[in-house]
Sequence to fold (308 residues):
Amino acid sequence: MSYPAANVLAGMPSLSKLYVNAAATAAKSRVLGLNSPMTLPADCNEVRGVLADLAKMTEYQHLLGKAARDVMPSGFIHALAFPVAMSVMVREEFPLPLLGMIHLKNRVQHLAPVLFTQPVTIRSWARNLTSHRAGTQVELVVEVRAEGSPELLWRGVSTYLAKGIFLPGVDKPAVAGTGPDAAHASFTPPDPTGLWHLGVDTGRAYAAVSGDFNPIHLSVLSAKALGMRRSLAHGMYLAARVLADVGSPKPDAFSWEIAFDAPVFLPAAVAVHIADTQTDDGVWVSSQFVGWNARTGRKHFSGTAAVL
Fold:
């Protein structure tokens, strides 16, 4: 596999500063009518010698209802690496606005246990700028390696949608009968294996442990300012919560993926169905999961996890 050239950053970017920069860029574009570039940055951003914050990791595990462990949860690795991915999305060469970006899916290979004491190198780049029926989507790739080693520990590909943004040269698809509405129409909720009651403060609680203070998750007012009717749960909170309940304890190497069909507006009651597959002697092999609105039956997310 070939990799883009690395743009090595001096340290971990500050998420709060990145959001401020994104807001300033959006305001400047509205006032000046600036044109966006049509291509993605050619290189990647890289940060070396990254260490997890033990206090935050402990709070993260407790938020998900789990006891603290020295091994980083897979979702926490995503949160640890997210500032590097976001630093790619706020670059001047990045063609889509960061604020209001919608999380569509994740695909992750968790290849080895990562201890909180282990310094890592995090690298991220953007790829696959493509059309979507509701706008333009892009993939952000993140790789986490042991510091000073070629060993790949964790690799994630996140797909995001810039709703309502149709770039010249990226044609709007004319495909009927696909997308979240079609998926909702054909979805029949199974018997739930769990029910989550998510309060209006769920977004703020996850932001406090992950550092992701995207305004669409924090309050009704900040969400409405970005075109949402209410604040919504982080996609990665939903992914982390369901992962905490499947195949526990996790094997050393596993993969997982999740697709988001409809946002979870807060407060909410989310019904969840998890179907685990095990060997004859009770060892976890894989899981399929789905979550939906307990009142309306609308599907919010679905996915799988499996041992590698």
Remarks:
- Residues 176-183 have pLDDT under 50 and may be disordered.
- Residues 176-308 form a domain with the Thiol Ester Dehydrase; Chain A fold (CATH 3.10.129.10).
- The first helix runs from residue 15 to 32.
- The radius of gyration is 19 Å.
